[in-house]
Write a structure and sequence with these properties.
The protein is mostly helical and 181 residues long. It has eleven helices and no strands.
């Protein structure tokens, strides 16, 4: 008899190959064998997220979190809630993850995004600044900061952020377009 971890592992191989149907089949078998197989719960949540099936993804990731407080789990939950436009819940899950790993780039960035979408621009800016310290090489941070500065009615800082983003990604036509306005 195959154990739950072996079933999960088979599903993971299919998942990596982009064969979501087979991956889901093996993840389900793993969870039928052991409903607490944490890897299968996480990857099933990830699979559902990739398929834009956010309510199902949230159910699986919450099950995984109930078994283990893990920063990767909170990051996925935050992304699920962002995509579902559940901004306050995304903030809440990012806070949980940041308590585990305060210097996690993805959670700081997604916290800033959730706060921006929740119209808390000043706090959003603080989290973008934290994210920028963690990944100063990534154009997406100053790019997103530019819109926060815009909402804070700081057009000069907004433009400077766009210029910084373009310096990090000089071939980005979208950035060039926004700077031309």
């Amino acid at each position: 008899m195959t154990n739950a971890y072996e079933l999960y592992s088979r599903g993971f191989v299919f998942h990596q190959q982009g064969n979501f149907e087979e991956a889901e089949k093996f993840y389900k078998e793993a969870l039928e064998s052991d409903s607490k197989e944490i890897n299968a719960l996480f990857m099933m949540a990830n699979l559902k997220y990739q398929q834009y099936r956010y309510p199902e993804a949230e159910k699986y990731i919450l099950s995984a979190i109930s078994l283990m407080k893990n920063v990767r789990f909170y990051d996925l939950l935050t992304r699920i809630r962002l995509e579902s436009k559940q901004y306050q819940q995304a903030i809440d899950s990012a806070i949980e993850g940041l308590q585990i790993e305060p210097a996690n780039f993805e959670l700081n960035f997604n916290m800033a995004l959730a706060l921006k979408n929740n119209k808390d621009y000043e706090l959003s800016l603080k989290f973008y600044q934290r994210a920028e310290k963690l990944r100063p090489d990534l154009y997406l941070v100053p790019y997103n900061m530019s819109s926060v500065y815009f909402f804070l009615d700081e057009p000069i800082k907004s433009r400077e952020a766009l210029e910084k983003a373009l310096s990090l990604d000089p071939n980005n036509d979208e950035l060039k377009y926004f700077l031309s306005l």
